[in-house]
Amino acid sequence: MTISKERPAATYNGYLLLLAALVLAGWVISRFISFAASGPSLLGVISLPVSALLLLLIAFGFFMIQPNQGRVITLFGEYCGTERQAGLRWVWPWMGKTRVSLRANNIHSERVKINDLRGNPVEIACNVVWRVADTAQAVFDVDDYRSFVNIQIEAALRTVGARHPYDDMSEEDETTLRGSADVINAELQAELNDRLKVAGIVVDEAGLTHLAYAPEIAGAMLRRQQAEAVIAARRKLVEGAVTMVEMALNQLSAKDVVHLDDERRAAMVSNLMVVLCGERDTQPVVNAGSLYQ
Fold first, then answer.
1. Element (H or E) spanning 84, and its range?
2. Which of 80, 159, 223, 231 is the 20 to 30 Å CA partner of 4?
3. Rounded to an integer, what distance in angstroms lies between the CA atom of residue 224 and that of residue 232?
4. Residues 61-96: pLDDT tens digits?
5. What whole-number distance in Å separates Cα of residue 197 and Cα of residue 147?
C-alpha cells in the first residue's frame, strides 16, 4: 500500500481576492447602469460577460478554515496539499476541498468481554484522546478514519487485556490489569499509536475506565478475594502475637520476675497466643494455688 504524506497546499489569501471581487462587482454594476443610460457599446458588450464570468469564478473559490481545522485540496482526484492556516482562503473553484478536524477527540469505548492471561473472562473499557496528525493519511489511506479508530480501540483492548492477568494470584510480583494501572495505560497507548499510525492518527492519552470480572465468575472471585484478605489479616495478627509473646518472656526473664521451666514456658506461650489471636474476648481464670496447681 502506498503511504500518503501531508504537504502544504498552494492557496491564496482570501481577503485580497474578496477585495478584488468587490471591485469587480462594482464595475459590473456600473456597466449595467451605463447601458441603461446610454445604451450598449461594443466594448461593453464584450467586457461585461467576461467580467461577470470572472466574478463568478472568484466567488466560488472562497473557503473558510476555523482554528485547528484543515482542508485537503485535490485536483481531479490528485492530492495537491493541505491548508492549515486559519481564515479566509481561496483556490480555483474546480479544486476539491475536504474538511478535516485537527482538534482532539475523546472516545469512551464500549465494555468489551475478553479473557485475561489466565483465561478468566473480564469486562474492560477505556477512554482514548486522539487527534489527526497527518491529514493525507487520514483521508486517503483509510476509508473512514473515525470508524477505523473505533475498531482499533476494541482490538487494542483485547490485545493488551490478554497479555496480563486480572489479579496476582501468586506470590510473584507481576504486572496485572488491576494493580498496574500506569503500566497498562502506557502499554495501551503505545499499542493504539502503533495501530493508528497507518491512518495518521496520534493518541495523546489512553486509560482504562472499567475493569471487572465477568458476571458468571464475579461471585467466585469475590469469595477468593475475601479469603485472601482474611489470610492476610491472620498472618499479620500471628506475626504481632509472636512478637508480643517473645517480648513478654524476655522482659520476665530480664527483670527476674519469675523462673519458668520449659513446660511452663510452653503453657504460657500457648495461653498468650490464644489470648492475642482469639477473635472473642477471653475469660481469665484466677489461680489461687501454687504455680503448679
1. none
2. 159
3. 12
4. 999 999 999 999 999 989 999 999 999 999 999 999
5. 15
pTM across the whole model = 0.70
Residues in the chain, overall count: 293
Number of Cβ within a 10 Å radius of residue 173: 9
pLDDT band at 251 (very low <50, low <70, confident <90, very high): confident
* Residue 199: DSSP 8-state: G
Q: Strand pairing of 78-83 and 12-13?
A: unpaired
CB neighbour class for 121 (10 Å; exposed up to 12, middle 13-18, buried from 19): middle
**105-213 fold:** Tetrahydropterin Synthase; Chain A (3.30.479)
Contact 87/16 with Cβ under 8 angstroms?
no
CA separation for the pair 100, 71 (Å, rounded): 6
CA distance 138 to 253: 81
Name the one residue in this structure whose C-alpha cell is 494493580.
179
Non-local (6+) Cβ contacts of 63 within 8 A are: 14, 71, 88, 89, 90, 91, 97
116 burial level (CB within 10 Å; 0-12, 13-18, 19+): buried
The domain ranges of the chain are: 12-99, 105-213, 218-277
